[in-house]
Amino acid sequence: MKNLLDFTKEELSDIIKPAFRAKQIYEWIYKKNVDSFDDMRNLPRDLRDYLKENFYFNPLKKVKEEVSQDGSKKYLFMLKDGKTIESVLLPMKGDEFDENGKLIKHARYTICVSSQVGCKMGCSFCLTAKGGFVRNLTPGEIVEQVHFIKKENKIPYERRVNIVYMGMGEPLNNLNNLAKAIKIFTDNDGLAISPRRQTVSTSGLSSQIVKLGNLNLGVLLAISLHAVNDELRQELMPVNKAYNIASIMEAVRKFPIDMRKRVMFEYLMMDGVNDSIKDAKTLVKLLDGIKAKVNLIYFNPHEGSIYKRPKPENMEKFRDFLQSKSVTCTIRESKGIDISAACGQLKERSKNDNS
Ligand code: SF4
């Protein structure tokens, strides 16, 4: 049996004739959210039987859901082979009403998806890294995380969401499947999510950043930088041995990006490790000539972590320094701090609950 969601519409139309059936199947799944092939009423019975015998389109089973006080929802999903992954729904802004109570702006959501089961990159601050790498997710397993969460939370089809490839795994280590997932997401008969709403976040695989850029998919890029010198970055992120900071910056400078958008640099701040003004000065130099936005993120300590949450005043000084040098910078409160929103934590806890 094959996962129907692994197929782009073009691939499906090569298998299922006449070709317009592929469009109909896409609409039933992504727009009408049906649960079974029998519900695809405009397909002939023999086609439905053929699909039933050869395909499935429900690759995820919800195992656990945790809701944070800030409204973030974290999902633990089980895949067909029993492996588990995490995804997070982050409400960015609630519905907005005018003084008469009339809805003037709909709520905005971001969905953080996983791209692999486990991860090879071994970042020292990350729980996912502890379990090592298991396997790549297929395109359909990536796509279904967003589809499932939209459905589950009754987010209407027309309400576009932002997608960040920032969950478990290094998306650029799974570039072929990622690229296919991006195409499926973007399809107008599918979820119709513009590539400009999709941000690929990488630990800094410079050669893969170049390859992603060459694919010209139109997605946005985020770099998990976290340190401004190779020595510290290597300690935090072993990938830096193969791809140092200079190589990342070079790849970023070549990356095709919408003129109105910026490359995001994620900077996980840890008390006394990377939060000094000296670090801020180096960061400004590194970003010279790049249309960048820096996100300073509070480190969310987990059990056994050697790093600590930074002091708010140091975060603010760091941000103010960057802004004084005309670098766009925001402080991001770790959403879902009470549900351990750093990737891998729900999975880790669930294992403990079961033991
Ligand atoms: S932080 Fe991301 S890239 Fe690093 S080990 Fe964790 S999942 Fe992998």
UniProtKB/TrEMBL annotation:
Swiss-Prot/TrEMBL cofactor(s): [4Fe-4S] cluster
Molecular function as annotated in GO: 4 iron, 4 sulfur cluster binding; metal ion binding; rRNA (adenine(2503)-C2-)-methyltransferase activity; rRNA binding; tRNA (adenine(37)-C2)-methyltransferase activity; tRNA binding
Subcellular location(s) of the protein: Cytoplasm
GO cellular component: cytoplasm
Entry keyword annotation includes Metal-binding: yes
Catalyses which reaction(s): adenosine(2503) in 23S rRNA + 2 reduced [2Fe-2S]-[ferredoxin] + 2 S-adenosyl-L-methionine = 2-methyladenosine(2503) in 23S rRNA + 5'-deoxyadenosine + L-methionine + 2 oxidized [2Fe-2S]-[ferredoxin] + S-adenosyl-L-homocysteine; adenosine(37) in tRNA + 2 reduced [2Fe-2S]-[ferredoxin] + 2 S-adenosyl-L-methionine = 2-methyladenosine(37) in tRNA + 5'-deoxyadenosine + L-methionine + 2 oxidized [2Fe-2S]-[ferredoxin] + S-adenosyl-L-homocysteine
Keywords assigned: 4Fe-4S, Cytoplasm, Disulfide bond, Iron, Iron-sulfur, Metal-binding, Methyltransferase, rRNA processing, S-adenosyl-L-methionine, Transferase, tRNA processing
Entry-linked SUPFAM superfamilies: Radical SAM enzymes
Similarity comment: family membership: Belongs to the radical SAM superfamily. RlmN family.
Note: Reaction proceeds by a ping-pong mechanism involving intermediate methylation of a conserved cysteine residue.
PANTHER family, A to Z: 23S RRNA METHYLTRANSFERASE, RADICAL SAM CORE DOMAIN-CONTAINING PROTEIN
Protein name: Probable dual-specificity RNA methyltransferase RlmN
Organism: Campylobacter portucalensis
